[in-house]
């Protein structure tokens, strides 16, 4: 009987001993993969956030740039990584929502292979013209004798798709001119090559603040604190015309919930820090302290809005 109790006691103790010997996460540096080149907005914010998260984790969060193909390479890299919390994706509208509609074949499935960690921020979008433009309102913009031209940072960017949505909601026409980045489009606007640009707040607010551009409408639920005189589409009688560029942190599907929750808490703390909030507010970027579940719900809703529109427009990036 004593031997049986001894054996049973040893067996019962094994899980506790195993748990005690399991390394505490994280025990080595983390990789945060960004699908865009160094120096751009995504890279800049990822590095800033990583600098806040690193001391909280007690391990270095390394930002790794893997640009190319609408962040396809970065997304594939993370989706094929072990779901252990050591490889993360800097995600956005493009690699989570748009790509499945833009490419006939993708080496990853964002709905199946990735899961939300936390939200970084969203970038309100403005339709802007030159200060001396004869177009003095959004109503005037929609009634031009010939379709005005509008620039965007790229084909199938949030800016491009938001403008196409706005055209359908408000019933007007405009001709798209894609650029390689928002700053290039803004320079051509100021030079008189373009009639307008659909631009995000991070790029556009400095131009508005300096009087180098004038906004006709913001595609947000509420006016921007950085441009409070600019009306929303809803104020102008255009329903369901809300669009943002946004960024998030995602992980491979199957990452342990405890790791996801720890990362979510540290990401939220980083975004809520005074230094980060000051920088974001100055550019009109809006944050939200979402849980992983709330982020996943948000992405699912975005899928239902933008993928059908992309298919309706017939935009493909692999043809």
TrEMBL record:
<keyword id="KW-0732">Signal</keyword>
<comment type="similarity">
    <text>Belongs to the UPF0065 (bug) family.</text>
</comment>
<dbReference type="Pfam" id="PF03401">
    <property type="entry name" value="TctC"/>
</dbReference>
<protein>
    <submittedName>
        <fullName>Twin-arginine translocation pathway signal protein</fullName>
    </submittedName>
</protein>
<feature type="signal peptide">
    <location>
        <begin position="1"/>
        <end position="20"/>
    </location>
</feature>
<dbReference type="InterPro" id="IPR005064">
    <property type="entry name" value="BUG"/>
</dbReference>
<dbReference type="InterPro" id="IPR042100">
    <property type="entry name" value="Bug_dom1"/>
</dbReference>
């Amino acid at each position: 009987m004593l031997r049986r109790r001894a054996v049973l006691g040893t067996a019962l103790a094994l899980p506790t001993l195993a748990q005690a010997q399991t390394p505490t996460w994280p025990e080595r540096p983390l990789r945060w993969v960004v699908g865009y080149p160094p120096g751009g907005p995504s890279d800049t914010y990822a590095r800033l956030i990583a600098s806040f998260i690193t001391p909280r984790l007690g391990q270095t969060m390394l930002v790794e740039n893997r640009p190319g193909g609408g962040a396809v390479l970065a997304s594939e890299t993370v989706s094929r990584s072990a779901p252990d919390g050591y490889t993360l994706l800097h995600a956005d509208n493009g690699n989570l929502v748009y790509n499945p509609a833009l490419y006939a074949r993708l080496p990853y499935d964002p709905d199946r292979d990735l899961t939300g960690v936390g939200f970084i921020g969203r970038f309100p979008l403005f339709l802007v013209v030159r200060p001396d433009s004869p177009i003095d309102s959004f109503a005037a913009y929609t009634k031009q004798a010939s379709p005005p031209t509008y620039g965007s940072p790229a084909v199938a960017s949030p800016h491009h798709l938001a403008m196409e949505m706005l055209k359908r909601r408000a019933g007007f026409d405009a001709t798209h001119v894609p650029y390689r980045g928002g700053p290039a489009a803004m320079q051509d606007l100021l030079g008189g090559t373009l009639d307008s640009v659909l631009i995000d707040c991070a790029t556009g607010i400095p131009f508005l603040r300096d009087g180098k551009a004038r906004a006709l409408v913001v595609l947000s639920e509420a006016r921007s604190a950085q441009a409070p005189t600019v009306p929303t589409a809803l104020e102008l009688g255009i329903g369901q015309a809300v669009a943002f560029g946004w960024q998030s942190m995602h992980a491979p599907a199957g990452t342990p919930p405890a790791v996801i929750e720890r990362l979510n808490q540290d990401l939220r703390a980083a975004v809520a820090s005074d230094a980060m909030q000051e920088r974001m507010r100055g550019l009109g970027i809006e944050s939200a302290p979402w849980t992983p579940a709330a982020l996943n719900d948000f992405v699912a809703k975005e899928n239902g809005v933008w993928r059908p529109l992309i298919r309706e427009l017939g935009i493909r990036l692999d043809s």
